[in-house]
Structure formats: C-alpha cells, structure tokens
Amino acid sequence: xxxxxxxxxxxxxxxxxxHTDRLLDALGIEKNPTIDQILYVxxxxxxGIVLGMIVKFIVLFGARKMVKLRNSTLAREILDxxxxxxxxxxxPPLVILGMIPLALNHSDLSVWMIKILLxxxxxxxxxxxxxxxxxxxxxxxxRDNTRNLPLKGILYSIEGILWLIATIIAVSVIAGKxxxxxxxxxxxxxxxxxxxxxxxxLGFTAGIQLALNDMVHVGDWIVVPSTPANxxxxxxxxxxxxxxxxxxxxxxxxxxxxxxxxxxNYKGMSDSGCRRIARNVIFDFNSxxxxxxDKTAEIVKQLPLLxxxxxxxxxxxxxxxxxAVVNGTTDTNLGLFRAxxxxxxxxxxxLSHDSQVLIRVMEPTPxxxxxxxxxxxxxxxxTAYEAIQSALFEHIASVAPIFGLVIFNAPSxxxxxxxxxxxxxxxxx
Length: 429
Hints:
Blueprint: H1 2-6, H2 10-27, H3 33-70, H4 73-80, H5 83-88, H6 91-104, H7 108-143, H8 152-175, H9 179-186, H10 190-196, H11 198-212, E1 221-223, E2 230-236, E3 241-245, E4 250-253, H12 255-260, E5 264-265, H13 267-272, E6 275-283, H14 293-302, H15 307-315, H16 333-347, E7 358-361, E8 369-377, H17 382-399, H18 413-420
Antiparallel strand pairs: 1-2, 1-5, 2-3, 3-4, 6-8, 7-8
Helix pairs in contact: 2-3, 2-6, 3-4, 3-6, 6-7, 7-8, 8-11
C-alpha cells in the first residue's frame, strides 16, 4: 500500500499486534482471526484518536504560551480562527491509514475501510486548507485591504473550487477510478452543473468585476434604483450584497445586479467632504420687475451684504466664470436676488466656498420662473446636510419679499373662496 510506504508505521503496528495477542492470551480467549481483527482495528482507532488529542494539546498549549509570553498578535489570530485545531484533525486518519492494512490482510473489508478513511482524510485536509485560507483572508482584509474591496466572494469561490476538487477526488477513490476519467464523465453534465451553480458562477464573476473595477466597498453608501436598497454596504459575498438602509432594514441582492444594472455610489461625495444642494425655487412671472436706483438703495439698506456687489456692478459689471463667485445684475429684482444669494452662500461657513456656486434661472414653466440654488455643504453628515439645506431655503422664503419677488404657490380652497368674495373692483361683496 502506498499509505504504508508514506507513513512508516510497521513497527508500531507490530507492537500493537503483539500486545493484542498477549491480551487475548491473558484473558483466556481463544484466538480467532475475526476477533483479532476487530480488537486490532479498535486499538488502532484508539491510538489514532489519542495521538491526535496529544498533538492537538501540545500545539495549542505551545501557541497559548507564545501568546502569553510574547503577546504575539499572529498567534492570537491563529487561535481565534481555530486554524491549529482544524489542522490537528488530519493526524488521526493518517495514523489509522498507516496501520489498518496490516490488520485486515487486504480483505474486502480492508479495501472499503481504507476508502472510507481516505475520504475522511480528504475532508479534514480540505477543511484545514479552508481554515488557513479564511485566516489569510481575515488578516489581509483587516490589515492591508485599506480600500475595503469586496474580497469575500473571491474567498468563497476559491473554497468552492477546493471543495469541488475534493469531491471529485473522493468520488474517484470510492469508485476506484482516475480523477481524469471522472472529470471526462462530468463534462457530459456541464450544462446541468451550470444551471445548478448559476448564481455562484454569476456571483463569482460579478465579485471579480466589482473588485477589479473598484466599483463598491464595504462601508459605501449606494442606491440601486431597481431595488429598495438605499444605504450602507455591510457585506459582499459570493451570492449576496448586504445593504443596511437608513431605517436599519437589511436589503440583500445578488452581486451581478450591481454589474448588470446601474447603481449610484456616494463614495466620491463622502471622500470630497462636501455634499451638493440642487433645488429650485419658482417665482411668479408678474413679480419680476426692473429696478430703479431708489429701489436698489432700499434693498441694499435692508441687506447690507449686497453693497460691495452693487458698487462694483455700477463701475465695471463682470460675469466671472469661476467656481465660487458672485453673479447677478442690478437691472431686475431677480438679478439682484441672484447676486445676494451668491454673497449669502459665500458668507456662510457651513457652505463650501471651494465648490461650484450657481444661482441660475432655469427654463420657464407654466407655474413661473424656476431659479436653481446650486451649491455644496461643507459636511456630508446627513442630519447636518438636511439642517443646512432647510435653513437656506427658509432664508430664501424670508428675503424674497424684500426684493418684491413672490414665490409661486398653487391656489388652495381658501384662495378660491377669497376671490369669489371680491367684486369686479376688488372690494369685498
């Protein structure tokens, strides 16, 4: 047997056989080949288990001592991941495989027991390798994966391939055929296997694309329009992407959903340290009027922030193409309002002064003239962003009447009742 050549266990096997015979003689039991084999197999299994426990105890004891004496982070992580524990399970089946053939004399029972032991050995070796791979992945993910790349899917894929190979080898051992022959037969069922493992294959491919293209990281805030997902990425595995929404609900979707459809990632916004405000205010057409010097002076008196712009516009009006600049006119109340809002935004510390600032008139609508407020907050925190944005538009509502501007508001039932109460000359009926 190849196992007997690899594992030099003949002397130990002969020693166990001699002591088994002596035990039978001492008990006065007549020698019987079947009883001898059963006792010998029992003794070998017991020796293998005890030897495995001894090795496991020595290794774990040494590792714990190393952690206490040297405070080794590596040894502590190995213990936490139970790498040594899983690797020590390989010893008992190897010991038993080295001794069992001498007891059963190459009988049919010997052949089947060896096959079962080989399959068990393949399983524990595969489990030990998976434990080592998991330890390596955890160590890399915590220490070197500074970009939070979704590598768990790749880990699961490698483990899946490992278990597939182990399964093929185990089946070939039981069938007594070469793994190459078995692989040839499996090729016939390739279509069925692709259907069975469709999600795993798509997940593996999508995981590689997500990692290589740097599309998403654990901790990113993403929005997937085709799903209810709108929150922080908590985990990316072979078959699922786990997203925690802002209401603390968990949304899971396949990784290939992110690859096959578009999704929005707010990582760039988070990294920039500022967040965009882009919202329209609609003014009534009839409230937009030309400005007279007296009206301009009256507005400036109430809003001194406009004085530098009005002084410069009189002497040398300039339309500056820069990012954070003041643009507007002194010709109309809407133009002066635009200039004021630029000055106001640039005077507020909670609003970014290094990003684009635009107060622009959009395409007219049946409801009025939309004016877009386009700027950035100096923070990306959600609550702070909403508070800053709310305060900005509350201020707009409060200063618009100073410019003589009327913010559009659809008529309500009260407005209709008031109109009906007026006569043709505007007096109450």
